[in-house]
């Protein structure tokens, strides 16, 4: 089948080529928007990335151009209007599983980096400044670690936390027995936030979790707590987070996602800068580390994502559905 893949990173290209070699594949590094959707005319399959905008307008343009399958290369799909896709007769599939270790390990990378002031330390050493002033961190051992969302990724994060020798608190709609076996105590969100030295977010972005970390939630956290978000940007009220940091609260913040990241992340803004004042302010705080939605970006995880995408395309071609199908053929 003819496939047009949007938002392809350079490291993805050889993996996509190998996995979809039996198809006619064209790859673009631009995102899928109303402006770029006409490029898909004549392609029955479009493969999208997590920061593409698949609203009703874009989906209508794809359908008008002959697209029949949208195969998203991510687990999250809050960027796709599924109701509009169904009305247009578009089949939609995602990747329901890839290595949870990739995201959990990156979340800990962020937590450790902000705790031990690694960015400030590296920047200093590049200028041959080897003072220790302002670089003091804390032992992770003995901390209370709160995990919001204890699915596959949250469980992996908790296993690493247990290895450090921490006290584990969890919050979810239902307890995970594997986390309970690690000694995790499930508590209410308010208690978790007020007791934790480190809070990591691993819940999906739903109406019920949008801004789960809002002004009130941030006020409950310890002044010297660490906050990590490697899940979805919309979980954190970024404006409230800036206000909290300006007040001199929170010892460290690690963000791999941001609620308005779609027009910034995965792009080079080193020359023109960014117009998003909130993001610019977040990046300016010395205790904040922002990475560009790369937690999933390991060879293992990306390989699994691309293999699942190839299977989604093959199953669609054969008239089959699988566990990744969000909108089946015929809506």
TrEMBL record:
- Could you tell me the EC number(s) of this protein? 1.1.1.28
Entry's Gene Ontology molecular function annotations: D-lactate dehydrogenase (NAD+) activity
Supply the Gene3D superfamilies for this chain. NAD(P)-binding Rossmann-like Domain
Query: Where in this chain does the record put each D-isomer specific 2-hydroxyacid dehydrogenase catalytic domain?
Result: 8-325
Where in the numbering of this chain does the D-isomer specific 2-hydroxyacid dehydrogenase NAD-binding domain appear?
109-295
Which PROSITE patterns does this UniProt record tie to the protein? D_2_HYDROXYACID_DH_1, D_2_HYDROXYACID_DH_3
Q: Which UniProt keywords apply?
A: NAD, Oxidoreductase
Give a yes or no for keyword NAD in this entry: yes
Family statement: Belongs to the D-isomer specific 2-hydroxyacid dehydrogenase family.
PANTHER family assigned to the protein according to its UniProt record, in alphabetical order: 2-HYDROXYACID DEHYDROGENASE HOMOLOG 1-RELATED
The name this protein carries in UniProt is: 2-hydroxyacid dehydrogenase
